[in-house]
Design brief:
The complex is a heterodimer of chains A (469) and B (382). Chain A is of the alpha+beta class. Among the domains of chain A are: 149 residues, no CATH class; 88 residues, no CATH class; 75 residues, no CATH class. Helices cover 54% and strands 13% of the residues of chain A. Chain A has 19 helices and ten strands. Chain A has a five-stranded mixed sheet with strand order 6-7-8-9-10, covered by helices on one side. In chain A, strands 1-3-2 form a three-stranded mixed sheet. In chain A, strands 4-5 form a two-stranded antiparallel ribbon. The longest helix of chain A is centred in the middle third of the chain and has 22 residues. Chain A is globular and about 70 Å long. Chain A starts with a helix and ends with a strand. With 382 residues, chain B is α/β, with parallel strands linked by helices. Chain B folds into three domains: 65 residues, no CATH class; 60 residues, no CATH class; 170 residues, von Willebrand factor, type A domain (Rossmann fold), CATH 3.40.50.410. Chain B has twelve helices and 13 strands. In chain B, the strands form three sheets. A six-stranded mixed sheet of chain B has the order 10-9-8-11-12-13, with helices on both faces. In chain B, strands 2-5 form a two-stranded antiparallel ribbon. In chain B, strands 6-7 form a two-stranded antiparallel ribbon. In chain B, β9 and β10 form a beta hairpin. In chain B, α8 runs parallel beside α9. In chain B, 26% of the residues are buried. The chains are: A alpha+beta (469), B alpha/beta (382). Chains A and B meet through α1, β1, α2, α3 and α6 of A and β1, α1, β3 and β4 of B. Chain A: It holds the Pfam family SpoVR_C. Chain A: InterPro entries: Spore_V_R (IPR007390), SpoVR-like_C (IPR057008), SpoVR_N (IPR056174). Chain B: InterPro entries: Spore_YhbH (IPR014230), UPF0229 (IPR006698), vWFA_dom_sf (IPR036465).
Chain lengths: 469, 382
């Protein structure tokens, strides 16, 4: 795709695809498509966003993507950024037909971003916001030294998954909630809470028996607000990383749906626009590459696509039981999938629509390590479904809360893992606690369960300890 | 197009280098990690026996991003079969050598093979090493060119402006006019640094590499000795333009060998270490006058010497110490430990220029290098 004519052809194709998509009911933001070389695509892939701050972990991801690309192990065809307008990046070197598929796929992603409920509070200016943060980080490097900033980012990133994407429990005695009442819900809401904290810092008196009053899932926020160790620039770094995590969170919790939705639509749209024979073959090849199942992991494109198609089929032609029991008249397939795309996330999507027939048809299973072998241990459809759902809980991260911010009455931080049957990686726990210590500045503890016994890991700045409770 | 704005564009991305820059930073950090593990890497067989390839792969666990995570080995994972899977099917099995903690506890452990050139590795290893007691000897054979900024002129390249001197000129000129201060820079005030081509004289040095190749030196002992000499040779050639290396191998008799032979040929028979010291002294006498050369002698052996020869060895080592800047003796303690006769008699030698190291396993090679080629602190400073 080099010349002007190519670009012209691409624009023509885009026009056609867009018209078709809209005719079929998709509803998307404006989109800027950029054609860029592979390095740029995998840069964006590694960073999640072109404008994000610099750090070696992105360099590592970049290296991995580049290597896989160079050795032809994987190929990213596209990348879409959830913003308004959406940005989409097309790989320079894609053939016209590849780009057609990608554009159809992208339109569906944008439709999903715009209409799925979990993206409702997405901060749409994230591209600019990340760029500004990257600039500030760079200025901190000048001021405090690269190593210092880098190792602080290391520490902040170590706990970045421990945020609360949407505080639901309104009854919580959460200062932030109260202050926020009546104020617009913006990414800076938590700043109001900071003010509030300062104001009643002295007067909390006996009410603050427990600190925090109830276990706090947003470990990041709790540390930002309560660590006595942090300097302003460090608080800023933590806030940025937390904000970016909150931005990516809806994407992580709708991965299967979103990819399934995009796959469903590129298939549908491509079928409806005219392809000549060689194009049809190339398209079929590419599509089958995308939905290639894997024995070791769930391919979200494949699973998502199958569920959406199944929903459409079942609501179009309900079986007798569905007709009688649920009163489905039939012919509602399309309406239903649009409703699903608007209201579900991966967890509810699988729980509600992954049927026995699908589990069996797709040959899904759970496997586990047994000795030196990884073996299939579960084929029962409900258990498979529940297993997949449980792996998606909290986006696959352990659920950890701040239990006590003044443990031992010495300002120590007591974290607790809500154990639900899967043990933590002990080596990683021991390596992560020092990072938490860096952020908190006082001894830190993590309670979890090993071999059905409660165990407490501690780190006091010098040595690590593990004791059964 | 109805309502929605869709734009396709192509920009110039050639200046976008963020990914590359962060990648370099990651690699830098990997290098740091390698550095911490040098002792293990130094005696990696793939390096010592590398077939002249420039780039070698050092297996190193990828830099990890620590966070709280589940133990993948205890978790159930989802997968998709080809339609015929059943309970108990093996998805894959992992290689059964236990390599460190938890490796293989998760699907696809992230091992990072750092690509590194032997030269880069050498540079890391040699960073703190140098020839000890190096002296300026009389007759420099080769001098290398070097550029030095040590002249200031009124004309020059803008990039070479000497700001301090220029400002001084301005202040001086203004002061002479009776209005001191820094203002009004004129072209005459400008001063430029200019370089001179100078010759940097280096000291000549010769290193005598002496190795025991007798029958008692098993594969392990030979491997260790060769690892040491491999790095020593590289080190000398990297850091010094002007170093000669003489290879001497011995069992009951000693002879000078080519470098290739030294590193590849085995031998057998008894051991008489004095033979190689005698040969070394002859070589020095004939070819390397101590007046002109810094002389270093290193001998590696398993210490299993003819008992009757030991006294002779002490005597000859003392001879060598008279003409050498340093004499090093490395003893490789094989799996069958015994009280070495040679090491024991060497305890009597009390000369700061004489250094003994004992190597027990592969990771001892690096410390041996460090001990032999330790820079003396005040020397390092200049």
């Amino acid at each position: 795709m080099g010349s002007k004519e190519d670009l012209y052809l691409l624009e023509k194709a885009l026009e056609k695809i867009t018209d078709k998509a809209r005719e079929l009911g998709l509803d998307f933001y404006d989109i800027y498509f950029e054609i860029c070389p592979a390095e740029i695509i995998y840069t964006f892939g590694a960073y999640g966003m072109p404008t994000r701050f610099s750090h070696w972990i992105f360099g590592k991801a970049y290296h991995k993507m580049k290597t896989e690309y160079d050795y032809n192990l994987s190929r990213i065809y596209e990348l879409v950024i959830n913003s308004n307008p959406c940005y989409a990046f097309l790989l320079d070197g894609n053939s016209l037909i590849q780009n057609k598929l990608v554009m159809a796929h992208v339109l569906a992603h944008c439709d999903f971003f715009k209409n799925n409920i979990y993206f409702k509070n997405t901060f749409r200016n994230m591209v600019e916001s990340m760029a500004a943060a990257a600039d500030r980080f760079r200025s901190y490097e000048f001021k405090y030294g690269r190593e210092k900033v880098e190792s602080f980012i290391d520490a902040a990133i170590a706990i970045q998954e421990h945020v609360e994407p949407r505080p639901l429990n309104k009854n919580k005695k959460n200062d932030a909630e109260k202050v926020n009442a009546g104020k617009p819900d913006t990414p800076y809401s938590d700043l109001w809470a900071l003010d509030e904290k300062d104001q009643d810092g002295g007067s909390t008196g006996n009410k603050a028996k427990m600190f925090p009053p109830e276990p706090e899932k947003d470990v990041m926020l709790f540390i930002i607000q309560n660590s006595k160790e942090l300097e302003d620039w460090q608080r800023d770094i933590m806030s940025v990383i937390r904000q970016e995590m909150l931005y990516f969170w809806p994407q992580m919790e709708t991965k299967i749906m979103n990819e399934g939705w995009a796959t469903y639509w590129h298939l549908r749209i491509m079928r409806e626009i005219d392809l000549d024979e060689s194009e049809a073959i190339e398209f079929a090849k590419m599509h089958s590459g995308i939905i290639q199942p894997s024995r070791r992991r769930i391919n979200p494109y494949n699973l998502g696509l199958n569920i959406f198609e199944d929903i459409e089929r079942r609501w179009d032609n309900p079986g007798r039981e569905e007709k009688e029991k649920y009163g489905r008249p039939g012919g509602e397939g399309k309406q239903k999938i649009f409703e699903v795309r608007a209201t579900e996330n991966d967890i509810s999507f699988l729980r509600n629509y992954l049927t026995r027939e699908l589990v069996e048809k797709l040959d899904l299973y759970l496997y586990k390590k047994v000795g030196f072998e990884w073996k299939i241990v579960e084929k029962n459809w409900e258990k498979v479904r529940d297993g997949l759902v449980s792996n998606l809980t909290n986006c696959g991260y352990p659920y950890i809360v701040v239990q006590d911010g003044d443990f031992n009455k010495r300002g120590e931080l007591y974290l607790k893992h809500n154990y639900e049957g899967t043990e933590l990686d002990v080596f990683y726990v021991e390596k992560t606690l020092p990072h938490v210590y860096t952020l908190w500045g006082r001894p830190v503890h993590l309670e979890t369960v090993l071999n059905n016994k409660a165990v407490l890991f501690s780190y006091n700045g010098e040595k690590a300890e593990k004791k059964y409770l | 197009m109805s309502g929605t704005c869709l734009i396709i564009s192509r920009e110039d991305w050639s200046l976008h280098r963020k990914g590359e820059i962060d990648r370099q930073r990651h690699q830098e950090k990997v290098r740091e990690a390698i550095k911490k593990n040098l002792a293990d890497i130094v005696s990696e067989e793939s390096i010592i026996l590398h077939d002249g390839r420039k780039v070698i792969k050092v297996p190193i666990r990828s830099l990890e991003e620590f966070h709280f995570r589940f133990d993948a080995g205890r978790q159930k994972h989802g997968g998709q079969g080809d339609g015929k899977s059943k309970q108990g099917d093996v998805i894959y099995s992992e290689p059964q050598q236990g390599k460190g903690r938890g490796a293989g506890d998760e699907p696809g452990v992230d091992y990072y093979e750092a690509d590194i050139t032997v030269d880069e590795l050498a540079e890391m290893i040699f960073e703190d090493l140098g020839l000890p007691n190096l002296e300026q000897k009389k007759k420099p054979e080769i001098a290398s060119e070097s550029v030095e900024f040590r002249d200031i002129r009124k004309k020059g390249i803008t990039g070479n402006i000497d700001r301090r001197r220029t400002i001084k000129e301005v202040i001086k000129r203004n002061a002479m006019k009776g209005k001191p201060g820094l203002y009004g820079i004129t072209p005459e005030d400008l001063r430029f640094k200019t370089w001179d081509l100078t010759y940097k004289y280096e000291s000549n040095a010769v290193v005598l590499a002496m190795m025991d190749t007798s029958g008692s030196m098993g594969p392990f002992e030979k491997y260790i000795a060769r690892s040491f000499f491999f790095w020593m040779v590289r080190f000398l050639r990297t850091k010094y333009n002007n170093v000669q290396i003489v290879f001497l191998a011995h069992h009951t008799e000693a002879r000078e060998t080519s470098e290739e032979e030294f590193f590849t040929k085995g031998a057998s028979g008894g051991t008489r270490c004095s033979s190689v010291y005698k040969l070394a002294l002859e070589v020095i006498k004939k070819r390397y006058s101590p007046q002109d050369y810094n002389i270093y002698a290193f001998h590696f052996s398993d210490g299993d010497n003819l008992a009757s020869d030991n006294e002779n060895c002490v005597k000859l080592i003392n001879e060598l110490l008279k003409v050498c800047n340093m004499v090093g003796y490395g003893e490789i303690e094989g799996p069958y430990y015994y009280a070495s006769t040679l090491r024991n008699v060497y305890k009597r030698i009390n000369d700061p220029k004489f250094t003994v190291v004992i190597i027990r396993d592969k990771s001892g090679v690096y410390p041996a290098l460090k001990k032999f080629f330790a820079q003396i602190p005040d020397r390092q400073a200049n």
